[in-house]
């Protein structure tokens, strides 16, 4: 059973940086998509970024391109992914969830419907 644990959330001023971390346990095979999602005030989960493990294939929402970077830990056991958030905007605030699409390859890696395993979330607050 795969489970995920996020960390790294906190408070940051607009324009600042923050790095989120997601450690995944119980990996089977190891080649699947993992994504970062932000929960809005309407409790909708919006895709922020996704990475195909061990393939360096990445995807970003338009709103974060050029500011956020998703990456996988290169050191064994390579079970950590990061979301480096730079030039943070006020609208980037929210609860961030890490998720894994372990059942099938997602058609849309930024769609939350494609993911079956979710972490508990880590909160990001941005002050202006």
Write up this protein.
The protein is mostly beta strands and about 130 residues long. Helix content is about 0%, strand content about 50%. The protein contains no helices and 11 strands. The protein has strands spanning about 5, 10-15, 20-25, 35-40, 45-50, 55-60, 70, 80-85, 95-100, 115-120, 120-125. The model has no long low-confidence stretch (mean pLDDT about 90).
Topology readout:
Blueprint: E1 3-7, E2 10-13, E3 18-25, E4 33-39, E5 45-52, E6 57-60, E7 68-72, E8 80-85, E9 94-101, E10 117-118, E11 122-127
Parallel strand pairs: 2-11
Antiparallel strand pairs: 1-3, 3-8, 4-5, 4-9, 5-6, 7-8, 9-10, 9-11
Briefly summarize what is shown:
The chain has 128 residues and is mainly beta. The termini are far apart.
Radius of gyration: 14 Å
Overall geometric form: globular
Question: Tell me about the biggest sheet?
Answer: 7 strands, mixed
Low-pLDDT ranges: none
The amount of beta strand, in percent, is: over 45%
Helix content: under 10%
Number of β-strand runs? 11
- Number of helical elements: 0
Can you write the helix and strand succession as a string? EEEEEEEEEEE
Oligomeric nature of the chains: single chain
Give the overall average pLDDT.
92
Which structural class do the helices and strands define? mainly beta
First-last Cα distance: 40 Å
């Amino acid at each position: 059973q795969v489970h995920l644990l996020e960390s790294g959330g906190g408070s940051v001023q607009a324009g600042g940086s923050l790095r989120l971390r997601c450690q995944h346990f119980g990996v089977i095979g190891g080649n699947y998509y993992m994504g970062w999602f932000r929960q809005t005030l309407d409790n909708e989960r919006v895709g922020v970024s996704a990475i195909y493990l061990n393939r360096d294939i990445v995807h970003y929402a338009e709103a974060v391109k050029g500011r956020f970077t998703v990456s996988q830990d290169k050191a064994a056991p390579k079970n950590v992914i990061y979301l480096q958030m730079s030039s943070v905007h006020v609208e980037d605030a929210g609860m961030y969830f890490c998720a894994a699409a372990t059942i099938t390859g997602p058609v849309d890696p930024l769609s939350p419907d494609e993911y079956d395993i979710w972490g508990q979330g880590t909160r990001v607050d941005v002050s202006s």
